[in-house]
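Collaborator request log, item 7. Partner lab (contact: R.S.) asked for a structural prediction of Thioredoxin reductase to inform their binding assays.
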Amino acid sequence: MKQTVHDAIVIGSGPAGYTAAIYLGRAGYAPLVIAGALTPGGQLMNTTEVENFPGFPKAVLGPDLMNQMREQAEHFGAQIEYDDVVSVDLSGDIKRITTDGGEEYQTRAVVITTGSQYRKLEIPGEREFSGRGVSYCATCDGFFFKNKPIVVVGGGDSAMSDADFLTRFGSSVTLIHRRQGFRASKIMVDRAKANDKISFLLDSVVTRINGDGSGVTSLDVRNTATGQQSNIPANGVFVAIGFTPQTAFFNGQVDLDQDGYILVKGGSTKTSVPGVFAAGDVTDKIYRQAISAAGMGCRAALDAQEYLTSLDNR
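Returned to partner:
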């Protein structure tokens, strides 16, 4: 039996992927969205209140926002598959996509919205105590550290938001950052500084995570200015130091920058491969906002539509 050739496949989900699917669906292309097996919906599935997405003056829960986007995409004809892409063949007019479940899909256009994954500290103890005190998702795991000392590592918006959220559970929250200044926006820094349960340990890096059979017990910390070593008690360590784009499975078939983010041409979402487009955090390491990802997903869908029209007019 001849295999179906889709007009468009969206690899990934989140604000970029679901928005691309909405636009492609409304244009009549019935896109297939390969949304991921474990975290369909992207990083917002691990976020509590989203206060800066237009249209929600009283904020919206991240999972609720993603579920509404998914339902909207399905309403306009998108098909959602909950699987992970493990390899692709982007050569020629017909692209081939293989999933972890063993399915192979064919498509004329691809929109990549695979986002990024949590960056690790890569220090002794991190891997050993992952899931036993070391976490990368405050909203997922904060509950397990009620009345226990918590440390957040990082200096961006995510770190500030995590620290603020974790004060609901921890006996104390210490934010450790390698510099004096923060990457986070002023409003997020001000909010964290106004919270009496948050203390700051600046010009400092965690060098080792210590623990026993029950989990994490303390951290070894080095002051970057003086070199002084110290040990601080902690049962929960939440790492919020950025992300790594999920592009490894493309195996060099699209051009990437030195950090692994997909390069796009000018103000478009076109990659180095005709018929392949990218949107969201997989290509954006500056803004990294849900609304900018959604806007880029819209642009990717429009670029894909233009490409598909050009194929039909050959």
